[in-house]
# Entry
Amino acid sequence: MTILKLFKSQFWRQFWPVLGLGFITLTLVVALFAHYIAPDKSTYASVQHTALSLAKPGTGYWIFYNAKAVSTDKTKSGSMPFQDTSITIKDFKFTDTAFYYHAFMQPEQWQSIPLPKAVFGNRLKAFTYDRINSIYTITLHKRIKTISYSASTLQQTLTKHQLKHFVFILGSDKLGRDYLSRLILGTRVSLGVGLIAVGVSIALGLFLGSLAGFYGGWLDALISWFMNVVWSLPTILLVVSISLVLGKGLFQVFLAIGLTMWVDTARLVRGQIMSLKQREFIDAAKVLGYSDVRIIIRHIWPNLWPALLIYASANFSTAILTEAGLSFLGLGAQPPIPSWGEMISAHKGYMLLNKAYLVFIPGIAVSLLVLSFTLVSQGIRNALDPKYKNQKPIP
# Structure
């Protein structure tokens, strides 16, 4: 049985590794479709509702979008520039003449806006109201003609287009941002750091390990000395140093983490190649006149992928934990980019104020993702071990 067939037949017989792979797949789907799934559709889920800071899970609210002018001065073209502003409200009601709402963090009293003013904002120039027929005659700044609207039409327009209901499923953070949305977008940072860091570490470790193991001599001694130097430095200190050299940015942090994880891969590749290059098929390739590059790429590397696959899945866990730790210290993803480590750091002071879930939720997310990659790594190791070939399914 080939290694690939052995892997296929044995991996799927293991319950916990398959469960871990399922969670990783679910996290990947969430990361890919984050902006479609997250309730907050903004770029970094950073829309703030300061009146709803630290709202409890399940808190519902309404957003009243009211068109207001940026300036009362006309532009050179004679048009009026406008922008949308919003008000966070708890409840609302209508009459034929006004829109009443109860805003968050306001005294317990209803506030009111004339119905045409609520719909048109500062675009409204003037209006009159016929109480007998419940008809408004409205004049806007951009129009010469007046337009008639019934009170019921204005109420329907306001309800349909300017009032939206939302729910904080997991509550809000200290800045009033939707916590679920930021948790969902945080999956992109965690999986992104794993993908980039592991890719960099595999590429660099495979290259340097191949040179050291295949050629040996002074080149092996030099690369081995360099690996020992990198290995002796604390990971966090090394990542911070590399980040300072590369500059600020999320990609630079990912790259810095990858540049600290290649030593294990290089050691593995070096040892494997030193063993494989003594085999008969390598001697045969040299007799046939194949170049060193072809021998390494075509004849040695294919024999390394099982071990590299195990290391890659294990390094995903290391990369995710390292990024979370850096973000917790304020050295990783910078606000407003959502990161699970940054979310833990920002709310660690609320653990004693009945808000411990703000720390536990991203903490559990990090733990489950790291555990899943660890289980998959162990499952791959078991599947590629021939002694598991005829055993019963592993629980």
